[in-house]
Each structure stands twice: as C-alpha cells, then as structure tokens.
Specification:
The protein has helices at 9-20, 26-33, 37-49, 83-91, 117-127, and strands spanning 69-77, 96-101, 108-114, 134-141. It has 156 residues and is of the alpha+beta class. The longest helix has 13 residues, at 37-49. GO terms for molecular function: sequence-specific DNA binding.
Length: 156
C-alpha cells in the first residue's frame, strides 16, 4: 500500500471547491484560493496520481432523461465468501449504479436506476435471480430523493 499522502489546507480547499463545481477553470480556482493556476494544476495532478481525485462526473437529471424508477436492493448471499463473485456478476448489470458490501440484515446493498417498472422487473426477475450465490433480495422503491450531497471535506 502506498504511503499516506500528506494533504495540506490548500489540497483540501481545492477538493472542496471542485466537489462543489468541477467545471471551474484552474485559473479561476487559483484566483479564488490566491495561488496560480499552475499550482492548482500540479496539486490536482498529485491528487489524481494518489487516487484521491478519480475524475469528474456530469450531474444529470435522470428523470428528465426518462429514468423514472430508482430502487434499492438488499441482497442476501448464501455465504459471505461469495461476495466477490456475486459483485463481479452484479457489475455486469448496467442498471445497478452503486453496490456496497454491508453489515446488518443484508450482505450487499445496491442502487438501481430504471426507465420504468417493467425494466426493474426484468432486472430483478431475469438478471438478479440468475446469479449464483444470491439467496434472496428485498427491493425498496424510492418515491423521492430529498437531497444528495458530497461530504464536507473542508470547513471554512
């Protein structure tokens, strides 16, 4: 494992600002933080090489694109030792957008995004149930997402 990266106040400020607005230019971010755009570029590169910054993502309104169903699936495994093989199979299902190995009632917890109930039914019935190692599942349909946010990595 790589040595722990020493993050200073500037690194945390850069992360904080870019989590809020990843489109900001290095020059504009430098002005905001009172350093050069070159310094921002070097710091971002360092954070990428350390695996802290893993790229940028476009925040899309899925409902506007016709994805009307968001569901969460609690997955019970036959044996916890099957986690890696089941996770590999679940990764092949494009509708599953997030998967966590969990404690508590479920072995795994997945978030799934579908255009409609028919697509959800297909994923649950025709995709998930065919994966060896899954004992059973429980599905929770989201009625509304109240908020979604990043963790606060830097307090001003």
């Amino acid at each position: 494992m790589a040595a722990k990266l020493n993050l200073d106040k500037l690194d945390l400020q850069i992360i904080h600002e870019m989590m809020d607005n990843a489109e900001i230019s290095y020059a504009d971010l430098g002005k905001k933080l009172f350093v050069s755009g070159g310094t921002i570029h070097v710091r971002i590169k360092k954070l990428q090489e350390a695996g802290i910054v893993k790229g940028t993502k476009l925040n899309v309104d899925l409902k506007a694109l016709g994805y009307d169903v968001i569901a969460f699936i609690g997955i019970y495994l036959e044996k916890s030792s099957l986690y890696d093989s089941v996770a590999k199979e679940l990764q092949r299902i494009p509708e599953i957008v997030r998967l966590n190995y969990t404690t508590g009632n479920y072995s795994m917890f997945a978030e799934i995004v579908c255009k409609d109930i028919n697509q959800l039914r297909f994923v649950l019935h025709d995709e998930l149930q065919k994966i060896k190692g899954i004992e059973r599942t429980e599905t929770f349909i989201s009625l509304e997402e109240s908020f979604s946010r990043n963790v606060q990595v830097f307090s001003q």
